[in-house]
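User: Can you predict the 3D structure for this chain?
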Amino acid sequence: MIDLRPFQALPATHRGWLQARHHFPVDGRDDPLHAPVGSLYVWNDDEFAAGHGFPLHSHQDVEIITYVRAGAVTHTDTLGNVSEIRAGEVQVMSAGAGVRHSEVNRGEVPLKVFQIWIAPNELGGPAAYATRAFPDRQEPTQLAVLASGFAEDSSSRALPLRAQARVLAARLEAGKSMRYVIPPRRDLYLVAAKGVVSINGVRAGEGDGVAITREKALELAAADDAELVIVEVE
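Assistant: Here is the predicted structure, written as structure tokens:
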């Protein structure tokens, strides 16, 4: 099943400095048109104005993935980490028993990020943080694994997740295509960070979300240069 969720139809938040679209409900309401996919329950498409962001605040028992689309975000947390994450880079924060962090745009241009939350396998445990860049030399017909909690990815460079999930990404040139065989009992959520792409014949533009459930494979074809981010959950 391919469920297209157009960007313009997503619920929105406008705070002046923050412009956001929410692929899943963020206020606890029941929204069958934007229901979570397995353990994936938050995917926000955020734009921060220059000089603004979220001050120090707390999280517990959630895997938080931030994928930077444009600009740079400065991350600070109570683990002692201070990092600047730029476009094409990803960070994973396992909140565990509790951590406080801030995410701020200290640059002079708008910051665009995907903020993704996944429920962990187990509650508690020490908080953790790690970052990495999109691979410089990605195979043109393969998805790159950026983060994973699946055992089959333990020997890869993927950032660790404490969830039965993986974060995949691809850059696909205009006119190119790729096929991805979906492991049994797994569903996916895909968002085009850039470009226009066909997913099993369904056309999705920049910012559109696509929930992919009970499918055996993905057939991806780019109408123009595209950048895709995908979460796969069990």
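The chain has a mean pLDDT of 95. Residues 2-233 form a domain with the Jelly Rolls fold (CATH 2.60.120.10).
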